[in-house]
């Protein structure tokens, strides 16, 4: 068996760095394991760059060559994600599109979000798909969030309608991806446990691994759903702390115009690594958080990421700026904008209100 394994390994193709156009980033080892399951072909590794501390998995998904990187064990948050992305784009400077794929905490007060569902970043109201909820300034009266994160690349936004038009369950490729994941007991749906949503005012009782001691009278009654999971599109809240409070979760969601998910990496990427964020819901961002749903949720997110790549044509990707070129274009634009005069006390992104009746002409 060892000799056969070595023979198979030696037959793997080895491509050049410039042949990889899709960058896939994940934060946890279980997310990396799910991502590797999505590869249609595994490629030989390339000689590492001494200045790059990332470890890469290389392969092909459909017609696209993909480079996958994971955050170092024990590191999380926006800064760690930004560091991994920066090193990836320097080593693989032909990468044109990015994916941030993994797990997150759902917000059931915004939509009928359930464990195992998939959340996809998409511009909604005043946000480009991702908002950093813990970045801003504190004033005597309140906390003011500042800055604006870029939207996902247009090529992804143009692909989403075709996925919405056709049910994912009707797509053979998506069904096959889920079937392939289910062959590994780690990712099986029946290993997850119950999907119990507790009232937002009721805090967890007992140990950190399960809710056996939590009182079932506080479980929210919901209509049964025939689907194992649903895909939702909208705003993802990102920050450098784990959200484990249901009342704060719901309050922030209302303040931000309706958030579907909380996570900890995407805000570090959107302005420096143009990407689509895909999150599988593994908990409800409350005190009842545990890890039992993480593998399945990581799997559904990875399967969706593979599916959206399947509808992208290589020609579309080739016509997209590389990540390095896109960031340079944004920086050049910002340099010009800084030279232009601005009105005192003008609010950030005031152009969004340019058609309001209180605005002066021009």
Automatic annotation (TrEMBL):
Protein name according to UniProt: Purine and uridine phosphorylase
Any GO MF annotation of the entry: catalytic activity
Please, one GO biological process term?
A: nucleoside metabolic process
Species for this entry: Trichodelitschia bisporula
Which InterPro entries does the entry link to?
Answer: NLR-like (IPR053137), Nucleoside_phosphorylase_d (IPR000845), Nucleoside_phosphorylase_sf (IPR035994)
Q: Which domain of life is it from?
A: Eukaryota
What SUPFAM superfamilies is this protein classified in? Purine and uridine phosphorylases
Residues in Nucleoside phosphorylase domain copies: 21-308
Q: What Pfam families does the annotation carry?
A: PNP_UDP_1
């Amino acid at each position: 068996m060892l000799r056969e394994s070595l023979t198979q390994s030696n037959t793997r193709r080895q491509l050049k760095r410039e042949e990889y156009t899709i960058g896939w980033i994940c934060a946890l080892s279980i997310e990396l394991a799910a991502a590797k399951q999505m590869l249609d072909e595994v490629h030989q590794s390339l000689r590492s760059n001494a200045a790059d501390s990332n470890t890469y998995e290389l392969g092909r998904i459909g017609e696209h060559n993909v480079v996958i990187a994971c955050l170092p064990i024990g590191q999380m948050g926006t800064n760690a994600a930004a560091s991994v992305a920066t090193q990836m784009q320097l080593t693989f400077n032909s990468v044109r599109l990015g994916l941030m794929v993994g797990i997150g905490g759902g917000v059931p007060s915004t939509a009928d979000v359930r464990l195992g569902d998939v959340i996809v970043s998409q511009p909604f109201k005043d946000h480009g798909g991702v908002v950093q909820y813990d970045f801003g300034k504190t004033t005597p009266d309140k906390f003011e969030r500042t800055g604006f994160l870029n939207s996902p690349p247009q090529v992804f936004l143009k692909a989403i309608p075709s996925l919405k038009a056709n049910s994912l369950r009707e797509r053979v490729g998506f069904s096959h991806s889920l079937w392939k994941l289910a062959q590994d007991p780690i990712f099986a749906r029946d290993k997850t446990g119950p999907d119990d949503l507790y009232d937002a005012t009721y805090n967890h009782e007992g140990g950190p691994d399960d809710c056996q001691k939590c009182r079932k009278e506080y479980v929210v009654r919901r209509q049964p759903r025939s689907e194992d999971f649903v895909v939702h599109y909208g705003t993802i809240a990102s920050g450098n702390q784990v959200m484990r409070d249901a009342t704060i979760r719901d309050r922030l969601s209302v303040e931000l115009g309706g958030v579907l998910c909380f996570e900890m990496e995407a805000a570090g990427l959107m302005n420096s690594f143009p990407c689509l964020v895909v999150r599988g819901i593994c908990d409800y961002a409350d005190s009842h958080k545990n890890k039992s749903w993480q593998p399945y949720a990581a799997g559904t997110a990875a399967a969706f990421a593979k599916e959206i790549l399947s509808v992208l044509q290589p020609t579309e990707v080739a016509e997209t700026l590389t990540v390095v070129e896109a960031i340079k274009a944004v920086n050049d634009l910002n340099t010009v904008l800084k030279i232009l005069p601005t009105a005192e006390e003008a609010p950030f992104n005031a152009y969004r209100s340019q058609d309001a009746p209180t605005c002066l002409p021009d």
